[in-house]
Amino acid sequence: MITCSDAVKQLWEYLDATVGQGEREAMEEHLSLCRRCCGELEFAVELRRLLAASGRSDIPDDVMRRLNQALKELD
Amino acid sequence: MREQLPRLYWTARTLVGDDAEDAVQDCMVKAFERFDQLNDLAAGAAWLRSILVNCCRDRLRAKARQPGEVEFEEAERFSLYRKIAYEDPFPYSDSLHLDFLQEFGREDVHAVLRRLPELYRIPLVLVYMDGFLAKETAAILQVPLGTVLARLHRGRKLFEKQMWDYAQENGLLKEASR
Hints:
The complex is a heterodimer. By secondary structure, chain A is an all-alpha fold. Helices cover 77% and strands 0% of the residues of chain A. Chain A has a single domain, classed as Arc Repressor Mutant, subunit A. In chain A, 19% of the residues are buried. Chain B has helices at residues 5-16, 20-33, 44-63, 72-76, 80-87, 96-102, 106-114, 118-129, 134-141, 145-169, 172-176. The radius of gyration of chain B is 18 Å and the shape is elongated. The N and C termini of chain B lie far apart (47 Å). In chain B, helix 1 (5-16) runs parallel beside helix 3, helix 2 crosses helix 3 and helix 9 (134-141) crosses helix 10 (145-169). By secondary structure, chain B is mostly helical. The interface between A and B is medium-sized, with 31 and 37 residues.
């Protein structure tokens, strides 16, 4: 079985689905037995959610107006 | 291009801060100049992102600034999850880790990202904020997939370390102690 240290190193890759089948199975076996690493996993999920939510926003009206004007001038 | 403007703007905002609007304008000009190079309209979002990233890099280079660069070896050993549990900044909380994250508004997250060297900041933004896959990010940045994965790994560690430092330096922990 992999160690906690190995599991934590690969948590994000596991969530990104960029690990191979063997690593995925080893991770899932570890998570089924290790409460602390499950906590690390849940935290990584929340941290990813925070990043994703921080990337979505409406553009300020005045900026949009100026960029639209610049686009019109390029057309 | 019009419908892409909000996402381009927010990507640029994360990469170059207050220079975002100018970076998007640079991107628009370059996109118009090179429009005949876009063979597949469906790939337009990634194509525009690639141009934008280069425009942002030009601006970062012009400023020649790498603020808050941290030693990677220190960051590699750092676990934000364990640090929060060990330091216990909110002693009366039942959801310590979530409470920590809730202290971060959008501008705080952007400020933390801007502390990272651009080498790591750009793939983090493209993958975790803009939703591109690692292989799409590799194509946008014109580097091998393995390079993107390695930069994402380092970038995440640096981001976690910088989140803790930022929270301390900006009173997020003190303010939330209740």
